[in-house]
Amino acid sequence: MHIKQVVLSGFRSFRHQSEIEPFSAKHNVIIGRNGSGKSNFFAAIQFVLLSQKFMHLRQEERQQLLHEGAGANVMTAFVEVIFDNSDGRLTVEGDEVVLRRTIGVKKDEFFLNRKRVTKQEVCSLLESAGFSRSNPYYIVQQGKVNMLTLMKDEQRLDLLKEVAGTKVYEERRAESLQIIQETNHKRLKIQEVVAYIDERLNELDEEKEELRAYQQLDKDRRALEYTLYDKELKAAREDLSKAEEARLREIERADDLHRRLHEARDASKELEERLAALEEGLGRKAGDRGRVEGEREKVLAQRERALNEEKALVEKVEGEEAKQAELRAQLAAVEKEVAEVRANLAGNIEAEYKAAKKKVDDLKRELKDREAKKSELHDKQGRRAAFRSVAERDAHLKKQQVEVGAAVKEREGLIRKNEAEREKALRQVKEEEGIVGRKAKEIASKEQALASLGVARSEMMGERNRKQDERKAKQERVAELEERKGRLEDQVRKAEQTLRYALPKHIARGLETVARVVEEEGIRGCYGPVYSLLTLKDPKFRQAVEVAAGNSLFNVVVDTDETAAKLMRKLEGERGGAGAGGGRVCFMPLNRLRVKPIGAYPDSGDVVPLLSAALTYPKNVDKAMQQIFGLKLLARDLEVAARFSEVANMDAITLDGDQASRKGSMQGGYHDEKNSKLAQVLAISVAKAELMPLEEELKEEERTYQRLDTEMSRLLAEMQKKERDTVKLQDEVDVLAREMRAGKQRVDMLKVNISKIADALPGEQQAVEDMKRQLSVWASELGTPLDSALSAADTRMLREIEARLPVLALDLKRATEELQAKASSRSRLTYRLNENLIKTREKILEELLPEYGGNAHVVKVGMVEARRLLEMKQGEVEVWRGRVAEIEKRLEAMDAATEAEKEEERRLKARSEEERMGEASLRELVADVAKGQEKLLNKRSMALQKRDASLKKIQELGSLPAAELELYKTLGIKQLYKRLHECNDKLKQYSHVNKKALDQYVNFSEQREELLQRKAELDDASAAIEALITNLDRQKDEAIIRTFRGVSKHFADVFKELVPNGYGRMVMKTTADTTKDIGQEEEEDDDDDDDVEEEEEEEEEVEEGKEGPGSAKKKGKKGKEEKGKGKKRASTEPALKVSEFAGIQIQVSFTGTGDRHLMQQLSGGQKALVALTLIFAIQRCDPAPFYLFDEVDQALDSTYRAAVAALINRQAHSEENPAQFITSTFRPEMVRVADRCYGVSLQNKVSSIDILEKETALEFVRELQSEEEALEEGGGMKKAGAGGRKKKEGGDVAWREDQYQQQPQQHEQVEDEEEEEEEGEEGSESDVPSKKKARGVVEREGEKRRKAGAN
To answer: CA-CA distance, 1292 to 1295, in Å (whole number)?
Structure first.
């Protein structure tokens, strides 16, 4: 058996239902920061297991257990523990047992496997599973270890007695003593009563004769009294009838006044409603006027903005037109100047320049030819000196021919290349001119497209404005309908709220829950509440129907009981949840209704059946309506209602709601309209009926608005697309214009390049001709003789050339100077033309519109768009002006309507004041009538009291003598009083007579015999109880000794496991100031097997009750002698007496050498270890299936923490006797050996538990240790974890560092021995019988004694 799972909800810091991951059956560790809720978790388990502090809780203690944090207060909490019961330790069927304890401010409930059980049943179940209240050490909370370290020897002895279960013995002994005391008291009482009975029996013999005379006089008295009371009863009934008639007359008058008062109130209410409607209308009109004023301000602002935009567009268009006019004037002036410059260039300057250039070229050519000829002649003349032979000369000339020939070819190739480039440039000029033409056409096409787009945008803008106006009108209509809908919904909500307040809370909540569940889950067969199924034929029947139905109006009609059961389960589920509850509803399943058939309604004009006269309803709910209204009649007035209710055996109701029940009761009076439930239901129906068509209209208007909005969005999207297309076309026009200008520039550049090529070609051709001429000269010289002098012709030519060259040079200089002058004049004009006038014209053309011969296509597009926008804006301005005028008219109409309603309001207020005054006078009359009715009621009440008093007196007389009654019937009241007085005087003479003498004599005789028999039984029981007390004392002493031996032995074993090099023991102190090591004696004399056998024999002897405490020791010795083990105990040793025990002393040694130390001589860590050893020893004496340790290792150093963790780990994984451990810690040693780790966190004052990986848990613990070390290094011992916490008890500091130094060898030894200890003997059976067995013996013995003689 072990704890499998824990579920918490609302318990202390655990607010929300927290289902913790299943625990391991071995070792579980819980970690978390201080204040996170670890201790609350352990307290929750103690809460379920009924530990002592949670056994009996007061109201304030219950409140403290409920979660207190942000949000709504928690009113109930529960803790549920799920046990694995596969071993069947709990006497409950099933492998899993669920135990839940629920607590509220005033309740405390237990559930076992989801079934409610009592606290006593839970206690019995836990006791049977081994959870002893006398030994709660399977749960060790914070401070328990510290408490054990501070215990004195006497307190340890008390603890041992508690563990031994002596509390049970003491309780039984106290009960037995109480029984003896009560028995003695009863015997004394019996003796006194017997003596009294004997005395009374003697007296009763003398009273028999007087009793007979007394009985005859008593008959006469009763007959007289009956006759007198009967006459008084008849008089009282007559007075009551007269008072009732007067009261009915006053009721009729009061009804008339109430009716008039109701009419006055209805009139006042109607006036108030009209006034409220007027005030509401005035408020709406004020709001509407404010909205219209705001709209006017917006329209004025829009108009102003449109006027400003119109003004800006006008300025833009006019400015551009003025600029174009100025550009046209500038272009005309530039064109004129260009024409003048070109005419000047084309005239004398160009001709003179060409003539001068030709002259210079001719002179240069002649000079070059003559210099070439001169050089040729000189070369020819010098070849004789340069060459030795003709062959050498010819070789040189041929070489020269080759070089010049190559140069000729190169020059010819260059000429051909230039000619090709010129042809290519000519083609490019043609192509570029074609491209420029195409660009111009494309620009014209795109400008036309832009114009079309502008027209389309203008049309779309107009359409947008129309749609916008239409959408605005729809929006205003939707707002108006929503406002009306809101008012109607407010009326419905107020009526529903009034109805909810008028109904009991559970009914209102139940109806809401049923409606919600039916709607959410689509449950069929639920027809709804009765009030929703019926319809009044006339509003005047409302009061009668409401009174007739009563709370049945709110019954829910369903088709079958299955539907009702389904809905009731839903309501029950709502109540069980965290909400305010699902409420309560009365269901009427049609298949289960048994409506009794109605024979016939009264045939009278004064009454009619209420069901058929006042109501209509669906036919499928006829049974329900017959059940409620079938036996109801509608009467003309209350008198008629009273008569027919008795005749027809039906309830009769008037239109005013006065009712006469068929059982005889009557009810009626004033009914306040404000508290009428059916009136609110009808108001809700009327408002909903008006609301439905309004909602349909609103939906239709909203759909129209949405359609217009969609169309507006589509139109805006199209406009944006057109805008993007326009921008795109404008960009394309701009690009085309730039490309066209660039094409024209390329054409001009190509023409300039062609001109340059044409100017260079003649010079290149002349150079080629000169080279060819030179080649021809060299060719003619080849083969000629090598002469040393020139020929005569050559000589003459050379002289002519030399004479001509200076003249040519001088002429060339003059011609060049003349050419430069002509060129300078030509260049100035050309520069002015090309760099000034032409560029100025091009610049003007770039800004001039195409229709004026310019290239400003983009400007043209902008101008067209600006003119179009100006036209649109002018139209928009006119629209805004019209809207302003329209709004002004609306404001004037609204002001007129408001003034008319104010006048109506003043008139209604005056009427309302008059109605209030009339209502006040009627209330005074009603008060007067009420006082009169009160007087009549007092008279009626007095008559009723007299009647009831007479009836009561007659009933008290009992049986009457018939003969005496006939004698007194003819007498009057005075005579009856006289005869009665005489009879009473005679009876006074027998006042001393015992009227029950005969019966008492017989009773006293029987009682005397019974008391004597009872006294004998009490004597026997007292003797048996005294024997039981003697046996209980003996068994208690034996249990204490056995428990001490077992705890002492386990203490030594556990201490040896925790401190391998040390040892410890427990010794008993006696009143003689000596110590007695009972456990040591046991070790010396017996081994474990013999102890078990001896104790089993002792248990048998205790059960049989035949031998004393010494017999068990004798048998134990005999058994040991037969086995041949141990030493004989000294015969002179005195028997152990528990009364001589003074305390338990603990002696330990941590090193194995030297003296043993007492608890007060140890350090804080050592004390904590010894306290844990004692806890483990107690647990081994009385093993539990699981253990809960809350920070038990907080005061231990790392070595002892490791030892404790190893001990827990071995016990958790023991094969023979495993146990589950759930521990909390701040240290890593316990985490390392854990099978499963959990983390507790606190956020917003709410705790939660989550499963953690072991590495995560170790990292968390290391962080806590790091924080603690950092705080300690800072100079103060502050709170950082459980190890650094200080707890104070009795003024002493329980925490301090361990003062001794652990030897290094001991660390190694502990680690080496852990594996050996895991394989060794662990978790064996206790050598001391458990307290449960001892308690069973005591209970069986006590039961025998009680059967023998106890009461």
So the answer is: 9
In 22-75, DSSP assigns E strands to: 27-32
Task: Scan for tokens 């009139």, then name that residue.
Answer: 267
CA distance 302 to 310: 12
pLDDT band at 339; cut points 50, 70, 90 = confident
Q: DSSP secondary structure string, 506-565?
A: HHHHHHHHHHHHHHHHT-TTEEEEGGGT-EESSGGGHHHHHHHHGGGGGPEEESSHHHHH
List phi, psi (to 5°) of 1060: -60, -35
CA distance 748 to 833: 14
The residue type found at 712 is M
Asked whether residue 580 carries a pLDDT value surpassing 60, the answer given is no
Q: Which residue has the tokens 């077992």?
A: 1046
Q: How many CB atoms lie within 10 A of CB 1233?
A: 22
Measure Cα distances from 1020 to 187, 1008, 1105, 1339 in Å: 12, 19, 19, 20
Closest CA to 940 of 234, 245, 254, 250: 245
Q: How many H-runs (helices) and E-runs (strands) does the chain carry?
A: 31, 28
Max avg pLDDT among 398-402, 984-988, 1232-1236: 1232-1236
Of the candidate ranges 130-144, 352-366, 795-809, 1198-1212, the one whose mean pLDDT is the lowest: 130-144
Q: Which two tokens stand for residue 598?
A: 């109605």
Instruction: Work out the end-to-end distance of the chain between its first and last CA atoms, rounded to an integer number of angstroms.
Output: 41
844, 331 in Cβ contact below 8 A?
yes
Measured CA to CA, the distance from residue 440 to residue 399 in angstroms comes to 61
Indicate the range of 387-391, 519-523, 1152-1156, 1273-1277 predicted with least confidence. 1273-1277
Q: How far apart are CA 1065 and CA 788, in angstroms?
A: 155
The whole-chain average pLDDT of the chain stands at: 76
Residues 1136/1078, Cβ–Cβ less than 8 Å? yes
Residues 98, 71 contacting (CB under 8 angstroms): no
3-class DSSP state for residue 1207? helix
d(CA 306, CA 875): 10
Question: Measured between alpha carbons, how far is 170 from 165 in angstroms, rounded to an integer?
Answer: 9
3-state helix, strand, coil in the chain (%, to 5): 70, 10, 20
Give the separation between CA 355 and CA 966, rounded to whole angstroms.
187
CB atoms within 10 A of CB 874: 14
**How many whole angstroms separate alpha carbon 710 and alpha carbon 532?**
41
Q: Using CA of residue 703, residue 708, residue 711, residue 716, what is the dihedral sign?
A: negative
Separation CA 550–CA 798 (nearest Å): 157
Q: Which residue has the tokens 């000339």?
A: 397
Q: Which two tokens stand for residue 37?
A: 């809720």
* Chain center to CA of 172: 55
In 792-934, DSSP assigns E strands to none
pLDDT at 1063: 79
Q: What distance lies between CA 1263 and its chain's CA centroid?
A: 32
Helix (H) or strand (E) holding 1000: helix 997-1058
Environment class of 1274 (CB within 10 Å of its CB; exposed 0-12, middle 13-18, buried 19+): exposed
Q: What average pLDDT score do residues 103-112 get?
A: 85
Please give the full DSSP string across 921-950, using - where no structure is assigned: HHHHHHHHHHHHHHHHHHHHHHHHHHHHHH
Predicted pLDDT of residue 674: 64
User: Which pTM does this prediction carry?
Assistant: 0.37
370 token code pair:
């003559």
Neighbours of 672 (CB within 10 A): 9
Residue 1239 confidence (pLDDT): 92
Average pLDDT over residues 575-586: 62
> Which residues neighbour 588 within 8 Å (Cβ) at sequence distance 6 or greater?
530, 555, 556, 557, 558, 624, 627
